[in-house]
Amino acid sequence: MSHQLAIEHDVIGVGFGPSNLALAIALDESARRSRLKCAPLFVERQPHFTWHGGMLLPGSDMQISFLKDLVSIRDPTSPFTFVNYLHKRGRLLDFINCRTFYPSRLEFNDYLRWVAAQFKSQAAYGETIIAVEPVTAGQTVTSLRVHSRTLAGGETVRLARNLVVAVGGQPYVPQVFAKIAEDSRLFHSSRYLDTVERAGFGGRATRIAVIGGGQSATEVTVDLYSRFPDARIDLIFRGHALKPSDSSPFVNEIFNPDYTDFIYAQSSERRDAIVRNFRNTNYAVVDSDLLDQLYRLLYQQRVGGETRVALHPRSEITGVDARPEGIEISLADKFGGRNRRSTYDAVVLATGYDRETPHAFLEPIRRYIRDAVLDRNYRLVTSPAFRPQIHLQGYSEASHGLSDTLLSVLAARSQEIAESLLSTISRRELIA
């Protein structure tokens, strides 16, 4: 497509997961209220809407209340609430009878897909953004030329007056595994279901290592135990013990939207201290119910005299080698001084995500970005001659608090970004 034929959009959203899905709702509702015309488009690399599809494990529940959906905290009367989803699906009374605030992850994914289907006309699936270039008039950048590549390899070019980036984190591969990152026997938990179902472990003795000490590592370990009766699973982590997440009510208040204002007003040193203090709400911790389930599993092993699952705490991985017979991992006990070496048929990295910014596709406009730290409305600080707004969702934990990568603030954050974007549209219409 030539640049002259490129379609112009008020906003292009990069990624169409929960963050930009919440923004689609906020833009739609705010534009209706203010009687402004806003034409957004959301470009998503997946061929259809899926939220963490690789970890939609049977029996896994949300760790956050259904009331912290895409809109309820901002507007419980919105037609896009989880409660209205249940009503439309004919399950509201049944859900009430379940007496829980925590739906299954499968159901919450279905809720998100239900919302996404209502914004299908604003989404372009199966496209990956590859470059964002400036469009200039004299010395002023007036808009952005957004290049994307389709699954078939074709390229599409669109114009955007503003950009909102919300592509989530990249699966984190520890440096010690970097040299075998392309080995098919090594995979990240983000691809767990897709990979493990093709692995062909059934019916033979298999050794599997799970690396990590958090929720995903524990979920994968329990799932492997039930999925492959002949498998032996080693859960390898650096801590002294698997630790429970703190979801007590007073601590949970750090995820309230107004806490973002408090965090943002602090100095960078104080922000760092607060994030460190509350890391046990979100990082390298496990839901208490799941910990109980794993402990009971290990206890029943002792009763039956079998050892299909083994925990290896305080373990530092000192070496990794890909051999024909499997992936060899060398471990050092950080406190006992003992070393061990084991070979595995498969290794699952439940090692979290890397959220380094800005992204490579922003390189052509890097010179206009003044500061990597976002302003209060999640906007990149750019030079005065740069008119487009660029907002980032899910990349400002250091400045906006721990809730930034979670679902807790979606409703409030999307409204703040929508109002910021619509203010520029309003000014443009007044000038026109």
From TrEMBL:
Q: Which InterPro entries match?
A: FAD/NAD-bd_sf (IPR036188), Lys/Orn_oxygenase (IPR025700)
Cofactor(s) annotated in UniProt: FAD
Signal sequence interval, chain numbering: none
GO MF annotations, alphabetized: monooxygenase activity
Q: Which GO terms describe its biological process?
A: intracellular iron ion homeostasis
What are the UniProt keywords, alphabetically?
A: FAD, Flavoprotein, Monooxygenase, NADP, Oxidoreductase
Q: In which pathway does it act?
A: Siderophore biosynthesis
Q: Which Gene3D superfamilies match?
A: FAD/NAD(P)-binding domain (3.50.50.60)
The entry assigns this protein to a family as follows: Belongs to the lysine N(6)-hydroxylase/L-ornithine N(5)-oxygenase family.
From the Swiss-Prot or TrEMBL record, give the protein name.
Answer: Ornithine monooxygenase
> Whose protein is this, by species?
Bradyrhizobium jicamae
